[in-house]
Amino acid sequence: MHLAHRLDRLGTETAFAVSAAAADWAARGNRVFPFHLGDLDLATPNNIVEAMDRAIADGRTGYCAGAGILPLRQALADDVGFRRGLSFGPQNVVVQPGGKPVITKFIQTVMNPGDDVLYPNPGYPIYESQIEYFGGNAVGYAYEPTATGFEIDLDRLAASITPRTTAIVYNDLQNPIGCESSQAEREALAELAQRNDLWVLSDEAYFEMRYSGTSTSIASIPGMLERTVILYTFSKKFAMTGWRLGAAIAPQPVAEMIAKLNTNDESCTTHFVQYAGVEGVLGEQKETAAILETLRQRRDAAFAALSAIPGFSVTKPEATFYLFVEVTQAMQRLGIGDVAEFAAAALHNTGVSFCTRRHFGRPQPGETRQFIRLAYSGIPVADINDGLGALRVWIEGH
């Protein structure tokens, strides 16, 4: 007997391997500062929890429509549309068990085997995994460091488009980099999509996880609404990572196909969890705002501490809960040439656990600068200061 050959093409979320190494180090009696996983240690707002409890008590524990319950689809259509200056109806919304299934179902809906799909690299590793698993060619496009953050290498991206290219995955407010496109960059990407008749998956998981300014969706640019699928998730804004609730907001023909995939894959998203989602969108936002304020404080603490470490270079993002840090000079200071070796040495000498650039897509040709990603979503300010203080002392000692 043998397993299916396509499994050889299936990747994973390699940050979980870092979690295993950190857990092993902690099990040996060592203190660990967990900057590696983009989970939240903050409680889901009480009104959302209470709404779920009411739904269970009311018997919302059976099957429901594969596309999701109408109250949630309508609430999301109104809220997502209002925040982006667009008009959606419930027919455009397909509820999912998390944001991640939107990636898989988008790929299955718009890509044929052998098609090229552009995706951000570095970027969320599931993009690359799912494109290749379903028989496509994952074509990474690069980001270039700038004085204020990062920007897409648009020339390289444009040169990567071929007659086989069918779609582009776009993660504005990006994980792991934490950067946001300028409006000019967003419009340039939209122009490429329209000129080459490409579908766009706009991963907007962090659309409302920002500390200043207002987010803009590529779907809001004229000509983009009919070719864009928006990935929406409750995980970040509402601290609901383990609840597994999200949605695809899509042109109706695509939404109908994604709903059909729902029926085949999981029948429906958990019924009572969807009523919690309705409360999240329509209910009291006081605790939700407090989550964002806590993350702001953590960002400021982490940015200040990282900026004080010799050989580290980092810009302060206005969104997400990640800091993407260049550590090339710090590694040279320590005489370490491999970023994975640097991460292991940092864990064993300071307890600070983080991901590296290699956890977010295969490095592209010509990359020489070394980066690490720190998530501050699951670690309090006091621990941020203790951990990054220990990291500074260790590096200063060399």
Question: Key terms for this structure?
Answer:
13 helices, Aspartate Aminotransferase, domain 1, Aspartate Aminotransferase, domain 2, seven-stranded mixed β-sheet, globular, 398 residues
Protein model, in words:
By secondary structure, the chain is α/β, with parallel strands linked by helices. The chain has 2 domains: 5-43 and 287-396, Aspartate Aminotransferase, domain 1 (Alpha-Beta Complex); 62-282, 3-Layer(aba) Sandwich (Aspartate Aminotransferase, domain 2). It has 13 helices and 14 strands. The strands form 4 sheets. It has a 7-stranded mixed beta sheet, with helices on both faces. A 3-stranded antiparallel beta sheet has the order 11-14-13, with helices on one face. α2 runs antiparallel to α9 and α4 packs parallel to α5. The longest helix is centred in the last third of the chain and has 22 residues, at 286-307. The chain is globular and about 60 Å long. The termini are far apart. The relative contact order is 0.17.
